[in-house]
């Protein structure tokens, strides 16, 4: 039986181009998420100040805190915005990779993937806007409402972040495999 020698240089299977693209998109998502978080925090603090000035809808014995958002109040919303921004950039990267592949091959399968990824990207943009409105949730005076729409266990913000985390894992794998 004839044996074929294995060349060690050819067995390296890491796609460095794909890894660089993924790291670049993740860094871009983190930077964008941090910038948006700062903007959303400032906007939320302005809204809280307006509510404090106009306090009529709250009963006098309500546990309303008229303080601006602290680090602990904005940590989870900021983390959520960063995660959703990373997901958005990975989706955008996949869309561009598939457009490039489509222009080379003209495959109908790639068009189907583009029709699948484009609504996911739009949903991701809407998720950022939803998280924007949830920055003020920690200032809502009623605990049960705050927990159901905020970032508590089972709250809307927490659910959006969990979905985006799983989306990031899947998109990273898909982006890596699409750049083979």
Tags for this entry?
180 residues; single chain; mainly alpha; 5 helices
What is this entry, summarized?
By secondary structure, the chain is mainly alpha-helical. It has helices at residues 16-53, 71-105, 108-134, 143-149, 156-178.
> Mean pLDDT, rounded to whole units?
81
What is the beta-strand fraction? Answer: under 5%
The N- and C-terminal alpha carbons lie at a distance of: 33 Å
**Topology, number of strands:** 0
Overall domain count: 1
Largest sheet geometry: none
Spans of 5+ residues with little confidence (pLDDT < 50)?
Answer: none
State the secondary-structure class. Answer: mainly alpha
Helix content: over 70%
Tally of DSSP helical segments: 5
- The sequence of SSEs as H and E is HHHHH
Q: How many whole angstroms does the radius of gyration measure?
A: 22 Å
Overall geometry comes to: elongated
């Amino acid at each position: 039986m004839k044996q074929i020698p294995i060349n060690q240089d050819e067995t390296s299977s890491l796609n460095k181009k794909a890894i660089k693209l993924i790291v670049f998109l993740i860094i871009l998502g983190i930077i964008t998420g941090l910038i948006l978080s700062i903007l959303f925090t400032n906007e939320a603090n302005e809204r809280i100040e307006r509510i404090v000035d106009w306090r009529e809808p709250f009963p006098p014995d309500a546990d309303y805190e008229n303080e601006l958002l602290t680090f602990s109040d904005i940590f989870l919303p900021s983390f959520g915005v960063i995660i959703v921004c990373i997901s958005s950039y990975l989706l955008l990267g996949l869309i561009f990779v598939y457009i490039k592949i489509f222009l080379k091959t003209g495959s109908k399968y790639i068009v189907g993937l583009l029709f699948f990824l484009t609504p996911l990207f739009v949903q991701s943009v809407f998720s950022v806007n939803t998280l924007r409105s949830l920055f003020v949730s920690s200032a809502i005076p009623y605990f049960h409402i705050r927990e159901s729409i905020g970032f508590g266990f089972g709250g809307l913000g927490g659910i959006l972040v969990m979905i985006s985390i799983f989306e990031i894992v899947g998109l990273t794998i898909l982006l890596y495999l699409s750049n083979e």
